[in-house]
Amino acid sequence: MNNKVENIGNQYTSKENQKKQRQRKKMRVVRRRITLFGGIMLAIIILLCIMLVVQKHSNDKDAVERKHKEEQYQKKQDEEIALKEKLNNLNDKDYVEKVARDDYYLSNKGEVIFRLPNDNKSSKSKSSDSDN
């Protein structure tokens, strides 16, 4: 159908053709700009997604490390409490006297300590319990 229609070479048609060509050029420029800005936006979005994934991985790793450190801290606090109790016991005269009598067979003047065969086994078990 296009082949059968001929253009009239007057001013009006030539101006209309020029308008159409300008409009096509503008549309090409607009499409190129949209494509360029769309590509830039897509690159920014991809970059942000990659940063998000990397940050999430880093946060997960840090959370695991923090949990581990908190467990270590709790163990250290428990150990500190146990050591303070031990220190308080060592400052207690009755406790020191009891340990000296039980573990080291020390006696006061005039006391005689008898060691029975069963005592050897029980003193070993006491010392192994106190080591833990």
TrEMBL record:
The keyword Magnesium does not apply. Keywords: Cell cycle, Cell division, Membrane, Transmembrane, Transmembrane helix. The chain crosses the membrane at residues 34-54. GO terms for biological process: cell division. Residues 1-15 have a biased composition (Polar residues). Residues 1-25, 59-78 are annotated as: Disordered. It comes from the Bacteria. InterPro entries: DivIC, FtsL/DivIC. PANTHER family: CELL DIVISION PROTEIN DIVIC. This is Cell division protein DivIC.
